[in-house]
Amino acid sequence: MSKYKIPLFLVIFCFLLAAPLLVAQVETKYHSPAEVAASLKSLAGKFPEISRLKGIGKSFGGQDILVLEIAGRKNKSEPEDRPAVLVVANAEGIHLPGTEAALQLAESILTDYGQDKAWTDFLNRNTVYIIPLLNPEAAAAYFSKPRQERTFNGRPVDEDNDGLVDEDGPEDLDGDGLITTMRVKSPEGRWMIDPREPRLMKLADPKKGEKGEYLVYTEGLDNDGDGQINEDGPGGVDLNRNFPHDFEYFQKRSGLYPVSEPETEALLKFMFDHNNIAMVINFSTENNLLNMQQTGQARVGADRVRVPRQFASFLGLDPEAEYTLKEIVDVLKSSGFAGGMEVDESLVATFLGLGPAMNLDRSDQAIYEELQKEYKSGLKEVGLDYLEKRARGVGKGSLAAFAYYQYGVPVFSFDLWQVAEPKKEDKKDELTPDRLRSMSSEEFLSLGEEKIAAFLKDRGAPPNFNATMLIKMVQSGQVTPARMAEMMEKMPRPAGATAGEENPEAYLLAYSDNVLKGAGFVNWKQFKHPGLGLVEIGGFVPFIKYTPPADQLQAALRYHVQYSRKLMMKLPVVSIRETKIEKLGSDLYRLTVYLQNDGLLPTSLAQGRRALTSYPIRVSLRLEGKQKLFAGRPVELVSHLQGGEVKKLEWTVQASKGSSLAVRVWSNRVSPVEKMIKVD
Amino acid sequence: MIRASKIILLIVLAITLSGLSQLSSSQSTRPRPEVKLSFDHFYDHSELTSALKELQKAYPDLMKLESIGKSYQGRDIWAVIINNPATGPAERKPGFYIDGNIHGNEIQGAEVALYAIYYLLKNSGRLEFVDRLLRDRAFYIVPTMNPDSRDYFLHLATDSNSPRSGLVPYDDDRDGLLDEDGPDDLDGDGSITYMRKRDPKGNYKTSPDNPLVMVPCRPGEKGEFIILGSEGLDNDGDGQVNEDGPGGYDLNRNFGYNWQPNYVQRGAGSYPFCWPETRAVRDFLLAHPNIMGAQSFHNYGGMILRGPGAKNLGETLPQDRQVYDYIGKQGEKILPGYRYIVIYKDMYTVYGGTIDFTYYLLGIFTFSNELDFDQYAGTQPAAQRRGAEEEDEDVRSRMFRAGASLEEIVYHQLVLMGEQLVEWKPYKHPLYGDIEIGGVKKMGRRVPALFQLAETCHRNAAFCLYHADQLPRLKVENVSLKKLENGQYQVEVRIANDRVTPSISSQAVQRKLHRPDMLRLEGNTRLVSAGILTDRFRELSEPLQVRKNYVQVDNGIPGFGYVDFRLLVEGSGQVNLIYDSLKGGYLEQKISLK
After folding, report:
1. A521: phi then psi, degrees, rounded to nearest 5
2. How many other C-beta atoms can be found within 10 angstroms of the C-beta atom of residue A458?
3. A259 vs B261: CB contact, 8 Å cut-off?
């Protein structure tokens, strides 16, 4: 593993090397949809032994969505019977770097098969599926003229509900090949020119005596004469809002219903047909290792529930009181109502009709927090730690949310790159929402009571809400730092803190000026608009936030390809560590089997168990001839094994000396194990 | 020639205008082949197919038959479209949709749907009410959504509760094997009944009133039997019996509104519309956006249900609720003993049901009937006779209970003469040893006895036709024209609706589900300005944004109401005024500008 840690000096060296190229390589070469297909074909052709290229379906516009399956052949089991990692890029059509990352990741693991022992073993034991381009129609927008940012697929949608579809899209009026912005003076205007930076627009704040002067539109005409400009352009549905967890209905961009789109359906069908997928790596604008904010509002105390009256009465619980799931599990276990069933929190949640989970399960959160530390320190080493600042949590209806809450596997979303903020002097210890968001509960608590008290005072918290209280809430998991950050952002700022607010786009302009040497911004120019009269056209160049310069892209890809590989290596590996046969009497034996998880991750996430999609591990004892089970069940169910955990299983069997007992270990997301044990 | 075509045109016009279909006269030259269907019979899929084809042959002018997709096992899912094209194309009339048998074991819904088709066709040209419906409405009918499980239920050994699912193999017990341990018809009588074993320590005994009835022992009482569940074996040797039978999911939890995954809503499927049957119906519904009313058929319990299926959706919008209540309460009169109730409140929670998809996302007023109730309980469902608090559990326990009650056995013995009853018989079970097998057969519960099927069909079809009649019926009324001094015309027109259903549901208005109604001018004319008259005494009006010679009418025309429009128009000669509602119909009115 250490082989893949990039020495710090090397990174610095790379940066130094890249620095002079910054200007020259403003335009990065990204793979167009056709080139993605071509390079997948060439990879599959180059490594025919271990890779297969298949289609999982077609986009709305009829383009093939391809998956590259990578599996070593030094193993009899079929690729779909092995624990697998699914890598998806471009679920958000605008995210071009993701596709590059997926392609590089594919190439790097293909090349290392047979070269690197650990990787060769991994690929002989596991399967990797790579889907580098889920939304080809959106990605194509980057390569077409005029260039326009686009996240949605090719389905015609009636955005303005007038019975017509796609009848009023934007036009490149000034002929510069880019769809930018129009500003026009209007008495209805809510925008004004930012006095601090006249190239930028800001919303006028009447409370400060500011007056709006401008209306702002995307560049285009009122094609359908309904008085609105560009209100119903070509497409489409945002695929990354079309997945079925916390789906937003009645939003045209989300689609009519969850999984309404051919691209999302193709992916989900693939995932459910390949129930062996045990981890998802997703390249999108979300980064769920840096920002653990989930789709919905975190509900404080969500895991304390009321028990419906009809159940409460026979369990001897108070229907008015709230209980944790754990407490209900204990009551159920001791009540005897459970019969022989394995009662866990997931079963109780389903039984009580609690609805879908909306927060990371606490035990899963601990896993994420652990990985977050590792990931962050890696980012810091290569100078990418600025990513924390604008990291986005998991969105409603997103692939990442679906993968965790419904598919039930660990999912890691990487945004790879952001426009870096110009360096500012930080007040060293100030707890900003951004800093809070990136903190784990433990890190927050380690600040100590004094600092937390100072922070509360600074934020103008009411005196009865003191540090001790907050510490208790964090300890009990009622509130997380991310949730606090969210609350802070909603609270009015304490007096005196508002002075000198910066335009939210200032950093982008600085990036365009300094790094892109001005290439990221089109200066405002007058234009005679047929409908609006004299307007000005200008503003940020499309895709500026999503397409880094070549050197920055390479640094981000290099690290994330390596880190993705590191995550894959953490998959659980179940084995039979030891078996014992003890003679208890004539032809009566006790069989003991020690089951072990050699991997770093558990065999299933708590959410995978609750969602019923990660099956329990079935350890079955197959008897032959005159063998008979004396004690124990023919199939023992092991709910899960934590990383490194060992579980002991016992059976008493009547068997003759010299005969064999067959033990089979099976679960959908774990490598199957079979072992014959000789009775002697 | 020209004269002849003019005459034909006049006839067509006369038919259209008279409002009464003159089908019989135009058809008199070609006598229809007579189709005779009986409703003391359950149709399997091939019988249903031939019945539909025969009807289509006899009524080619009124009925279209199309396959809207194939079931998992490759059976056609049939849809019937009924419309009198002489009175306008189907897509320009408010549509009424019916489906049945989404749950494979709930078979009689298909007979009700077939009966509705048969009734409409048979009575065309005979009954004024039917001709009026065929003139004003289009019908879209899917008799069985689940033909695989329908045939399974009719032809293979099963019980009255299964297969509810479709027949895509499904891993109920999550062991990696599909459908590997279903029930087994051990006694070979074509039904899955129950297994019991004599046991002096058992918790059941036979009733002193009737030895066929099993009753639970009271504390301290000596038992005679233990009940071992449905007839079956441990086919896969995992220590459990019948834990993974055919299918194992629920098509009526697989629709795309308020859908929740399997761990919240059992049987939901991996994602909305993941099964071929739900997908076919979805596509059919989306292809016919003029559908404004809908009806699903299930069994059982005697209920006229409306949504919401789950509490999280809140109450139905008040204006729409009034429409539901108006039709639902009439339904209670058409269907004696049936209760008009709300799914989540009065029955149980359903996420991802058909009825919420059609109402909440497509803006269609939808009911779902639970057909039939225990005949031996008289005309009132048992639940209604007892205290209201017990209803919740009662509905469920009556639908899925195991043991037969005394009154049920009496009904089986004296009314059905034992046809659907298996008396306990000994059997040697490989796991349980000496047991007895017996109980009520699959057709003995939830499905009406054949002597009652026709009544179920007629009354429920009557409810459908009543609902179809209550879809919006728009008319142009009170057209007035005034020439202004500047040469423009002020046109006032009233669009009225004499039925309870509005031309757009409140849900569709609020959520912008589909395009609004449109009022349009065609001809040598220009629409200058338009408004809705909100107070005709004070002449107050709400301005409408004029587009390319049309305006959008966002709220449509209310039920039992009207909207007065005031238009400012330029032009000359004959002008066509068109009111075009996606779900409320299509009107044309000629106006002479002079």
Report:
1. -140, 135
2. 12
3. no
A666 three-state secondary structure: strand
B173 touches chain A (CB under 8 A): no
Same fold, B32-151+253-375+448-469 and B474-593: no
- Reported pTM: 0.88
* pLDDT digits 0-9 by tens, A418-433: 998 876 655 556 677 7
ipTM value: 0.91
The CA distance from A112 to the nearest CA of chain B, in Å, is 32
SS3 A489: helix
Instruction: For chain B, positions 338-367, list CB contacts with chain A under 8 A.
Output: 349, 357, 360-361
Single out the residue of B286, B302, B285, B303 nearest to residue B294, CA to CA.
B285
Q: Which class does domain B474-593 fall in? A: mainly beta
Place A493 in a pLDDT band, splitting at 50, 70 and 90: low
E strand residue ranges, A299-439: 304-306, 322-324, 411-414
Token pair recorded at residue B387 = 């205290």
Most A CBs within 10 Å, among B170, B258, B263, B358, to test the A interface? B263
Give strand pairing partners of B531: B543, B566
Put simply, whether B375 touches A (Cβ < 8 Å) is no
CB atoms within 10 A of CB A324: 14
Which of A363, A277, A294, A287 has its CA nearest to residue A563? A287
Domains of chain A: 2-8+34-141+240-296+368-418+546-568 (3.40.630.10), 158-234+524-540 (no CATH), 433-490 (no CATH), 574-678 (2.60.40.10)
Fold topology of B32-151+253-375+448-469: Aminopeptidase (3.40.630)
**Are the Cβ atoms of B272 and A612 closer than 8 angstroms?**
no
Sketch the domain layout of chain B as residue ranges: 32-151+253-375+448-469, 171-246+403-444, 474-593
Rounded to a whole number of angstroms, the distance from the CA of A169 to the nearest CA of chain B is 18
Could you give the CA distance from residue B125 to residue B130 in angstroms, rounded to a whole number? 8
Task: Name residue, tokens 């359903």.
Answer: B350
Spatial separation of the C-alpha atoms in residues A650 and A647, rounded to whole Å? 10
* Min Cα–Cα distance to chain B from A109, Å: 30
Q: Is A225 on the interface with B (CB under 8 A)?
A: yes
Structure confidence at residue B385 as a pLDDT band (50, 70, 90): very low
